[in-house]
Every structure is written in C-alpha cells, then in structure tokens.
Design goal:
This protein is of the alpha/beta class. It has a domain of 139 residues: NAD(P)-binding Rossmann-like Domain (Rossmann fold, 3-Layer(aba) Sandwich), CATH 3.40.50.720. The chain is built from nine helices and 14 strands. Strand 13 and strand 14 form a beta hairpin. Helix 1 packs across helix 8 and helix 5 runs antiparallel to helix 6. The longest helix has 18 residues. The protein is globular, with a radius of gyration of 19 Å. The termini are far apart. The mean pLDDT is 95.
Amino acid sequence: MRNKITVIGAGHVGETAAWNCARLELGDVVLIDIVEGMPQGKALDMFEASPIFPFDAKITGTNDYADTAGSDIIIMTAGLPRKPGMSRDDLLAKNIQIVKECIGRASKASPDAIIIVVTNPLDAMVEVARRVSGFPKERVMGMAGILDSARMRAFIAMELGVSVENTHAFVLGGHGDSMVPLARYSTVAGIPITHLLPQDRIDAIIERTRKGGGEIVSLLKTGSAYYAPGLAAAQMADAILGDKHKILPCAAYLEGEYGLDGIYMGVPVQLGRKGIEKVIEIELTDDEKAALYRSADAVKSLFEKFPADLK
C-alpha cells in the first residue's frame, strides 16, 4: 500500500509541499483547504502534469477531512501569511485558532500520523499542534531548521561564488529573528567558513539569514516565501517515509537537551519512520549557549500568550 500524505492549506506553501511530495513519489497526496474548488483545481492541475514529468502519484483536492483519513504524514501549512511590517509574533492569536481547528480534525482522522508544522510563528504553532493532537513528541515537529540552513547555505554560496552543493550550514534556535546561525559549524567542502571569510562578511551572512523570511516578504509585498518552505517540508516527509535515519535540523520538543525543557527549538535530529528518533546534541560555546537561551526565551514568551484552553 502506498504512503498517504495530507497537506493542510492549498495556498502557495501548501501547493508547493504537495507538488514536491507527489513529484518525489513519496506517496499519494491529499490537498485540503476550506475554500471550495481551490484544492480540487490545484490537485487536478498537478495530476495533469504527472505524465509530462513524469511521476506516479495520485493527487486529490478536497474540503472534507474524511478524505484525509489514514494519512501517514500531515503537513500543516494553513494560516495567515506574514505581511510587510508584520512579525511572526503578530500572527500568533489568529493562527492559533486555525491550527487548533485543522490539527484537531486531521489528527482524529489519522491518529497514527506524523505531523510536520510549517505555519508561523512556527515554534509556537508546533506546540499548539502537539497539545491539540495529544500525539507523542516524536510525532510532532516543525519545519524550520532546513529552511533557515538552506538560506544560509545560499548566502554563503553567493558570497564565495561556489556551488550551493558544496555548502553546509548550521542553524539552531527559534524560527525567527532570534535564531542562532553557527558559523564555526558551517562549511564549504568541509572547510569552516571562519577560515574562508572575514568576520564582517560572516556577520552579514548571519544577519541576512535571521532576516531571510522578512527580506522575501518585503520584496513580494503581497505574500511570503513558499518554494523553499514547501520543499523543506517534503524533504522531512521523505526522510520519515523512507526511514532514512537522516540528520536534519527541525523544531523538536526538548526535555533537557541543550539545557532546555518543555519547549520546541530548532536542533539537529535523526528522522525515521517513527518520527524523531533522537535529538543530536553538540557542544556550544558560552556565547552560543547564551544566544540559544535568548532564542528560547523569545519562544517561551509566545507560549505564555496561549489561550486558557491550551494551557
């Protein structure tokens, strides 16, 4: 039997995640949205592209959660997008209600699924999904680190004029302006960028990585990033469904790791068929620890704003 992947939200991020899951033949895909006709039309368009690419996956658009039943993976993308001048924190109250509704219904239809949250503010929304679904922590995670690391890799490649395939980047912490890009763990063909670039250029790359989402929002003016986020979610699904035991940076629920407890943070994890198999802990300097704890404080401040029914 084929794997089944539900993507909640047929906006740009959702359609991109669905397209990549289908294109990579990870399983059959159900694209669901509250807008009648939109998921059906986008799913049909994708399926009509399958003979051209080609790929062999069934893609269904729906407004009914009954069609999502028995999913192996739930990718949560629905929510209000960021607008120019809007921080991820501004999205909190509105997107809490959306995540509660969608994950509540999807988790009931697929009680054995693994949830990947993309909706912003991500670290808070994945905690909402964990509380609403009641799933164990290893089956609820957030897509953040892959995107943030990809942005940093792209900026390193731009700076040095090298192939992005040679670059590797390491980003910890919350998905927002408080994230912690680690230059000494970021490399080009195995060479730390601290050996290749002066500190001022490294600082510029770190700052651009932190503001990467906002940069795209300011350029688009009417939306936010979707190509990289959608593909990042599909990469996580691929690692899980393929039981690859692949180490990727994701938002994981920490219970003592890195000295943090009861909070979602972007950290390297090992992903397999059961979800998060382990959290990979690395040694941090005092400055790096301080930056990570500042990021954790920023995320905890969002948890404190949750409505009473989520506390």
